[in-house]
Design a protein that fits this description.
Number of domains: 1
Order of helices and strands: EHEEHEEHEHEEE
Number of helices: 4
Structural class: alpha+beta
Shape: globular
Number of strands: 9
CATH class: Alpha Beta
Strand order of the largest sheet: 2-6-5-4-7
CATH architecture: Alpha-Beta Complex
CATH superfamily: Cyclic phosphodiesterase
Length: 179
C-alpha cells in the first residue's frame, strides 16, 4: 500500500517568496513545509494498492476542466486564529470545479469525499504554540502576501512517504487539463 494524494504543483518562481514566508514563521512549535514541496492538495486519497495507480490515472484523464489562471495570495490559518493547526497560502481560481471533477471521476474507487474543500497550500503545521501573540502578529503582516498568478494546466498523482524529517513526495503520474 502507498499513501497518495492529487495535487496542483506551484511554479518554481514562487519558491523564493515561500522561503521568505517560511523564515518569518520559523519559531518553536511550528513544523515548516519545505518550500520545494508546497503544493495545492485537490484530494487526499490515503493508502491505495500500487496496482490501482494506472486505473486512477486513467480515471483522472477524464477530468472535464479546462486549464485556468489562478491567483496565489493571502496567508491564513485552519481551523481558526484561536486554535491554529495549519498555516496556509491562499489559492483563488477554478479550483472548486477542478476538485468536483476529481471527485466525480474517482467516485468508483469509493474514496472518502471531502465536503470542506478549500483551495490552499500548506506552509506549516502548528504542533504546540508557545507564543501565540507573536505568531498572530507575524500572520497579520503576511495576510496580504501576493505571489501572483499561475496557470493551472496539470494535476499530479503523488506518493507521500512519511519520515521522521518530514514527508517525501514522488510524482506517480501527471494529467494535463484541456486548453
Amino acid at each position: 500500500m502507498i499513501r497518495t494524494f492529487i495535487a496542483v504543483e506551484l511554479p518554481d518562481r514562487f519558491i523564493p517568496e515561500i522561503e521568505k514566508i517560511r523564515n518569518t514563521l520559523d519559531m518553536p512549535g511550528i513544523k515548516l513545509v519545505d518550500p520545494n514541496q508546497v503544493h495545492i492538495t485537490l484530494k487526499f486519497l490515503g493508502n491505495i494498492n500500487e496496482n490501482d495507480v494506472e486505473s486512477i490515472l486513467s480515471s483522472l484523464s477524464r477530468v472535464n476542466c479546462t486549464a485556468f489562471e489562478a491567483k496565489i495570495k493571502g496567508v491564513g490559518v485552519f481551523p481558526k486564529t484561536s486554535y491554529i493547526k495549519v498555516v496556509w497560502l491562499g489559492a483563488q481560481g477554478n479550483f472548486d470545479v477542478l476538485h468536483d471533477e476529481v471527485e466525480r471521476v474517482l467516485s468508483r474507487f469509493k474514496f472518502e469525499k471531502d465536503p470542506h474543500f478549500s483551495p490552499h497550500a500548506t506552509l506549516a503545521r502548528v504542533k504546540q504554540m508557545r507564543d501565540k501573540a507573536i505568531l498572530l502578529e507575524k500572520l497579520k503582516k503576511l495576510e496580504l502576501t501576493d505571489l501572483g498568478t499561475m496557470k493551472v494546466g496539470l494535476i499530479s498523482l503523488k506518493k507521500s512517504t512519511l519520515t521522521p524529517v518530514g514527508s517525501i513526495y514522488e510524482t506517480l503520474g501527471e494529467i494535463r487539463l484541456k486548453d
